Give the backbone structure.
Amino acid sequence: MTPWIADTMDSRLRILGIRHHGPGSAALLVSALDELDPAVVLIEGAPEGEALAPHVGGDALKPPVAMLFYAPGEEKRAIFAPFAEFSPEWQAMRWALAHGRPLRFIDWPASVSLAVTQEEKNADENAETPRADPLDLLAQAAGVANGEALWNALVEESGGAGDPVAAFAAIGEAMTEARRHAEESEAATSRRDAIREAFMRLAIRKALQDFDGVVVAIVGAFHVGGLREKVSPATDKAAIKGLAKVKVEATWAPWTDSRLAFASGYGAGVVSPGWFRHLWRAYRDETFEPMCFAAGWQARTAALLRAEGFAASPASAIEAARLTLSLCGLRDLATPGLDEMHEGALAALCHGDPLPLRVVERRLYIGETIGEVSGDAQQNPLARDLALWQKRVRLEPKDIESEIRLDLRTEAGLAKSTLLHRLLLLGVSWGTLVEADAGRGTFREIWRLSWRPEFSVALAEALIHGVTIEEAAGAIIRDRAARCARVMELAEIVHASLVADLPDAAAEAISALQALAVDASDLTELMLAVAPLAGVLRYGVARRLPEEALRALAHALAVEINAGVRIGSRQLAADVAATRVAAMRGFDEALAIFDAPELVAGWRRALTLIVEDEQSAPAVAGFALRRLLDLGLRSADAAAASFAWRMSAAPLEAGAFLESFIAGGAEILLQDAALLALVDAFIVDLDDDSFLAMLPLLRRAFSAFDKAARARLLDGVAQGRRTLSHAPAPKLEEDDPAFAAALPLLLRILGLEAAS
Amino acid sequence: MTTDTNEQKLRRAAEEIFAQELDALRRGDDRPRPENWLMSPQAAVTYLVGGKAKDGTPISAKYVGNRRLVETAVATLATDRALLLLGLPGTAKSWVSEHLAAAVSGTSKRLIQCTAGTDENQIRYGWNYAMLLAHGPSMDALVKTPLTRAMEDGSILRLEELTRMGSDTQDTLITVLSEKTLPIPELDTSIDARRGFNVIATANNRDKGVNELSSALKRRFNVVVLPSPATLEEETGIVVKRVRETVSTLGLPPIKSPDAELLRIVTLFRELRDGRTLNGKIKLKTPSGSLSTAEAISVGVGAWAEAAHFGKGAMAPEHMAANLVGAVVKDPVQDMVALQEYLENVMRSRDGWDDLYGAIRDVI
C-alpha cells in the first residue's frame, strides 16, 4: 500500500486524480469518499456551475446532461461540461448532496475562459507543441500502446477493487512523477493550464481556511502534479490578475451519448460511452463476475445484430463470451477489455465479417441515450438566438394564424424565408410553406404563420444540436444525411439544406447523396433526383448555391444512370415501367439543359442499347425508340424494323410498347409526319389475321386520345399518305398570290432569308 | 521414416522444418496448457508471430500481420471451438493452419483436402469390404479417416478449402463439431473425441459459386478473416517482388523495370476491391471477382510477357489493358458496369492515367 504523502499545502487535503467520464474512476471515487468522509468536496469545474449542482440530487436531470455556460448575446461562445452517470464528477456531486456536504467548483471561471477569443486560442495552439500526455510516458514504460490504454487497463477496467484511497495515492504519485518527466523533456505546462491551476490552488486554500476536517479535491489526473507544486499564494494571485472577463450565464442542457464520444469534439470525451456504461453497471453490481460481464455484453451485441436482421443466436453469444474470456487468459487480463469483446464478437457472432458489427457499432459502442432536462428549464441560447432573428427580420411570434408573401429577391424576404426554413429543420413549425415554387426559378414564397407555446420545448430539445439556429439546423441536416438510406429522401434533405441557406451542411449532404447513389438500385429515384438539380443549376435560385458540388453531384448521378439504365430496364413490372418512363423523360429533359455533351452521348448510347436489348421492358423500349427517332439518331428504316420487331412480341408487351412509343398526344403524332408514317406503314403491312390479333392493342393504345383527336388522326393519315407518297416535304404553293405576298415576311420571321 | 527420405521431399511439413523452434518453445513453456496440447496458447502465439523462446532461441515469424488475429485463432482452439480461416487467395490461410496444427498438436498431417468429389466416407469412415464380407461389421473392418484418427488421438484436423466440398458432405461435420462424437450406427457405437481434438478449416471468402457453408455449420465455427495487405505500399511491394520472381522462373526476357505500372495495377485492384478510391472521396461499385493480390500478380506477369515478346522493351498501357479487363470483369454484365463507372468517374480525370483509360476503353 502506498502511504499517503502529505500534501505540501495541508495534511487535511486529499487530491484525487480521476479521468473524466471514467467508470472505474467513478467507482473508486465513491468508495474513497465513503472512507475519507470529507467536510467539503471540491470539483474541477467552472464556479458558475455551483448554482446548477443542486439539480443533480433531484429527478429533473437524467444524464447524459451538460452544464452549458454561454455569453448572452454571443451564443457562439459557449462551453459545455457534460456528465454521464458514470462520470466521477457526477457521482461526487451526488455523494455530496446525499451526505449534505458543501460542493465547490474550483476550475477557472467560465467568465474568463469564454473571454479567451478564438484568435487567442489559435495563437496559443500554434505557439505550443501539443501537451505531452504524461500518461503516454507511463504507458511507454509499461509497454502499452498509449496512455489511454494503460489508464483503461489499470483503472477503468480493473473493477474498482482494492483500497480506494491507496489507489488514488498511487495514481497521484505516478502522475506527478510522469508529469515532471514530461515537463523536463518537453515544453513547460501551457499558459492555459497554468492559469487554471492557479485558480484551483487558490480555491483549495480558501476551502482549507473555511472548513475543518478533510478537504477533497477531485481533478483530472493530469492536474494532480500541478496542484501539488509549491507556489506561493501571491504568485497565484498575480497569475490570474487582469484577465479579461465576459458576462456568463449557465444552464443545464440535455446531452447525448454520441456527443460524449470523441468524435463530437467537445473536450475530454470517451471512445465508447456504451462500453463505459456497461462497465459502470458491472461495478455497481456487488457480485462482479467476468463471465456474466462478458456474456452480458455479447448478448447485447447479439440482440442488436438480430434487430438488424443478422443471424446471431444466443448460443453464438455464449461462444463469443467464451472466446472473449479465453482471449483474456491469453493476454493475461483480469477482465475483458473492449478489444477482447470486439474480437470475440467478430469471430463467433459475425463469422469474421466486420460489416454487421459496423452496422450496430454506433448503438453498441456509443449508445443512443439522450439526456433529459425537465423542470424549470432556463432560457436557452437557441431561444435567445430566435429572439434576435425575430427582431432583425421583423417577424413577431403571434398565435393567431397569418399569411405572409415573401419576395426572395429582396434581402428582407430572403432572410425571413431562411429563418422559417431553418426553424422547420429544428422541428419548430412556426411557418407552413403554402406555395413552394422556390428552387424552380420563381422568387416567391407564401407562408402561413402561427406560434405555439410548445415550440419552446422543441427549441430546448434542439439544443443538443447547437447553440445557434444556424448551427443546430446544420447539425440536424448532417445527422439526417448520415442516417438516410434513400436517394429521394436524401435529395429532399439536400434541397432542405439549400433553402435553409446552409451551404456547408448541404455540401456534406451532397457528398452523402453521391455515395448513396452508387449503391442505389432504383434508377427511377436517381433520375427523379437529377431533374430538379439540373433545373436549379440552369436557372438558379435566389440563394447561395454550392454550384461546383451540385454540378459534380448531378454529373455523378447521370454517369450512374447511364451505366446502369440498360440492365435496369429489364424485367420491370408494368406499373414500375410506367413510372420509369416518366422518370426517363424527366431525365432526358434535364440532360438537355445540363451542359455536358459526354453525358448526352452516354445517354444516347444507352438508349440505343435499350432499343436493341431484347430483354428491355417494352414501355422503356418504346420511349427509347421514340427518343432516338425524334433525335434523328435512328434512320427511318432502322426505326421501322425495331418497331415491327417489338410489335411482334406477345400482345400485352406489344401494347405497352406502342402506348409508350406514341405517347405525347395526338397532336404530336399529327405533326410528326415521319412518326405517323412509321406507325401507318406498320399497320398497313399487317396481313388480315395479324391485323385482327393486333386490333385490340391498337384500340387500347389510341384510346388515350379523345374522339375528336382520333378523327383528325384518321384524316391526317389519309392526307399524310397522299403527301408522303408524292413528296416527303410539302412544297410551297407559290402560285397563290396571297401567299406569295406574305412570303418575304414569313421567311424573315423564320430566319430563312439567307438560305433562300 | 529416415532423414534421407525426408531430404528427398520436395517440401517438408512445418513441424519438421521448425522442429528446433517448437522444441525450444516447449522446453521453456511453464504456462498451463490445455489437455493434449504440446504447448501453452501463449507459446503457440509466439511460434506464429515470432519472438524468443525462454532459452533465447530466436523464433521466426511465420505470419506477418496482425498479432491479435493470431491470438483470436489460438484462443478459439483453446475453447474447443472449431476455427475457420477465411481470406482471399494469397493471404496465408493454409500456411497459418499448418503452423497452428504443428504448434498445438505437433503434427500438421491430419489433413483432408476438400473437393467437389469428397464424399462422406472420406470424412467419417469407410469400410474394408473384404474384411466386411469375411467377418461381418466390426471396428477392424472400419477404414479410418484423418478425422477419426484426430478424434482418437486428440489432435488437430485440418480441412483445406472447406467450401469446395458439397454442402451435404460439409454437414457431416455438424455432430462432430458440436457433440465431439462420431456415431457409428452400424456397430451401435461411436468414436468419442479425446480432449485436444479440434478442427481448423480454410476457405476462400470471395469465391462465389462454390458451396456456401450451411448456417448450422457456420454457427459451429469461430471465423477469423485473414486480411489482404493493409497498405498500397505493402501490397505493391509484394506484387513487384512476386512478379520479378515469377518472371525469372519463367525465363521471360527482361524489360525496363515496370514498378510504376505495377503500382497502377495494384491501385486499380485495391480501389475496386474496397469499393472506394484511395483518398476515400469517391464510392465505387465492387466487381464480383475477388481481385486478390494473387490475381494482381498474374496480371503483372501477363503484361510483362506481352511487353517482353511483343512490346518495345517496356510495359505499356496496351499490354496491361486486356489483362486488367480480364481480371476485373468476371460477370459480363455487373462487372462491366462497375468497370465503366470506374473508368468514367476515376480514371478519366486522374492525372497521368489517360493513356491507361484510353487503352482499356479500346479493349471494351
